[in-house]
Design brief:
heterodimer, A: 160 residues, Alpha-Beta Plaits, 2 domains, 5 helices, 31% helix, B: alpha/beta, Aspartate Aminotransferase, domain 1, Aspartate Aminotransferase, domain 2, 13% strand
Chain lengths: 160, 391
């Protein structure tokens, strides 16, 4: 039941408990209760809006930064990861397998701002051995949404 | 003396009445800003992995005819699919035929078994092509009224009453267009008994077999001793959102398939090659996409049915396909008047039930394979309209 609700909310966070109840053959009270519970136990983290900032005329600069680090005794990668994700510039942070360890998505207003963050903050953290910065050139799809003109279905208005 | 000029068109074609609501369709097409609940296809585009497989095949140059029966790999996959889904064994070499949608399947099946004057029993209301295909094949459609009270299921007793010396087959199509009805296994078994008792063929159009909600679909060929006398028609259009690809299939006994094949090879040659490639991919790995779409339809189904009931259009619970079939009798309008006025006054398109037979009068078909936002807006507009009619 809660997974069904989560699927609906993930697609449109504004769907009212009333509507969700109709679609899941439940009652609004029951749905609200389950949502409250999911909010409380951290299953639902936050409700957000997917914005196409380019269209809003407020361009951002995004970069994916590969970070190679030395894991530390007892805490592994976690302590270093925390030192990085505490920076508000780091929008997302992942520990990954492969030739580097951490992948950081950094957002800034200008290229200069992002570069500053990497060279003056990230690269200087103790335990960080090296970084490779990839500036994003174009966003095609984000969070499952196609940004560059989605597809239109062109159906005939009436078909028997 | 000059001979009398013959009619340009054949009598058997002239006998088919052009759809009475053609004018209504043209009206819908000419208007802007219409929310249409009048469609009969998914609102999803074909899942990308299926489209991608077809694109790749085009790049590789798979653009020639295939075997008349359909690509061997597709028939093998289909045979496996029917085995997995229903436990049915169909020999891919002799008992399966790939058709241009179920539409061709209905045409082939009726032409393959009917002699002039042979009768075919079917439900009213029912899908529009059944009736016409039987007539075009020289047969006579015999309609069995079904009603909301009986969940629009066909009654075995009602069928048996209409069996004559001329009866050749029973044509069923469940889950049903336009009603969304699903036949229970018990009731279907009783129809199968009637068919056996009188030596009738069963033509079963199961295009919507994957789109059922909270109930099981029963394949007619799985009923006791029915595999030999069932022509099972299925396809990819509705389950995999592949309407435009035009791929369907017929499964049946060797003799029946051979007869259908004779017509198919001279009239069609083979189903479109790229469509067949796409169908192979759909059968190999399309199941996840189907269950996702079914989940999504189910949410909209509940939303639509509850919404219709709320605005005063009582609606029996459709358990299959993607149609709701509410009664509009309380408005005092005929289904055609209702559809036309709703279109003109509120810009919502629905299909009058009368398009599907006399027993469809008093109902409208509303397709919920459309965005939730559109369903919501359509319901609001219909609510206003119904209020005015009843007012």
């Amino acid at each position: 039941m809660i997974n069904e609700i989560l699927k609906i909310l993930e697609n449109d966070a504004r769907t009212t408990p009333q509507k969700i109840a109709t679609m899941t053959d439940s009652t609004p009270a029951k749905v609200s209760k389950l949502i409250k519970k999911a909010e409380k136990d951290g299953t639902i983290l936050k409700y957000k809006t997917v914005v196409n900032w380019e269209k809003a005329g407020d361009e951002q600069v995004n970069a994916l930064i590969e970070v190679r680090v030395a894991p530390q005794r007892d805490v592994g990668f976690d302590a270093l990861a925390e030192r990085i994700y505490r920076f508000p510039e780091a929008r997302s942070l992942y520990l990954v397998s492969g030739t580097y360890d951490l992948l950081v998505l950094v957002t800034g207003k200008t290229m200069h701002e992002v570069a500053d963050f990497v060279t003056k903050k990230l690269a200087l953290i103790e335990g960080v051995h090296g970084t490779t910065t990839h500036f994003l050139l174009k966003k095609y799809k984000e969070d499952g949404e196609i940004l560059a003109g989605g597809e239109e279905t062109k159906r005939q208005p009436v078909i028997l | 003396m000059p001979r009398k000029k013959p009619d340009i068109t054949a009598k058997r074609v002239n006998r088919i009445t052009p759809s009475g609501i053609r004018r209504f369709f043209d009206l819908v097409a000419s208007m802007e800003g219409v929310i249409s609940l009048g469609v009969g296809e998914p609102d999803f585009a074909t899942p990308w992995h299926i489209r991608e497989a077809a694109i790749y095949s085009l790049e590789k140059g798979y653009t020639m005819y295939t075997s008349n029966l359909g690509m061997p790999e597709l028939r093998r996959e289909l045979s496996r699919h029917l085995k997995d889904k229903y436990g049915l064994d169909y020999d891919p070499a002799t008992e399966l035929l790939i058709t241009v949608g179920v539409s061709e399947g209905v045409d082939l099946a009726t032409r393959a078994i009917l002699d002039p004057g042979d009768e075919v029993i079917m439900a009213d209301p029912g899908y529009v092509s059944y009736h016409s295909c039987v007539s075009l094949a020289g047969g006579k459609p015999v309609m069995v009224p079904t009603s909301e009270k009986e969940n629009f299921e066909l009654g075995a007793g009602d069928i048996e009453k209409r069996v004559t010396d001329k009866t050749k087959a029973i044509l069923i199509g469940y889950p049903a267009n336009p009603t969304g009805a699903v036949m229970s296994r018990d009731k279907l078994a009783k129809i199968a008994e009637v068919a056996r008792r009188h030596g009738l063929m069963v033509i079963s159009d199961e295009i919507y077999s994957s789109l059922v909600y909270g109930v099981e679909h029963t394949c007619a060929a799985t009923l006791p001793k029915m595999k030999e006398s069932t022509i099972l028609l299925g396809g990819f259009s509705k389950a995999y959102a592949m309407t435009g690809w035009r791929i369907g299939y017929a499964a049946g006994s060797k003799d029946i398939i051979a007869a259908m094949f004779k017509i198919h090879q001279y009239t069609i040659m083979c189903a479109p090659t790229m469509g067949q490639v796409a169908a192979i991919e759909a059968l190999k790995s399309g199941d996840d996409s189907v269950s996702e779409m079914v989940e999504d339809y189910n949410r909209r189904r509940l939303f639509m049915v509850k919404g219709l009931n709320k605005i005063g259009l009582p609606c029996f619970e459709p358990r299959g396909a993607f149609y709701a079939f509410p009664s509009i009798k309380a408005t005092g309008l005929s289904s055609e008047e209702f559809a036309e006025r709703l279109l003109m006054e509120e810009k919502v398109a629905v299909v009058p039930g009368s398009a599907f037979g006399e027993c469809g009068e008093g109902y409208i078909r509303c397709c919920y394979a459309t965005s939730l936002a559109d369903i919501e807006e359509a319901l609001a507009r219909m609510g206003r309209f119904v209020k005015r009619c009843k007012g």
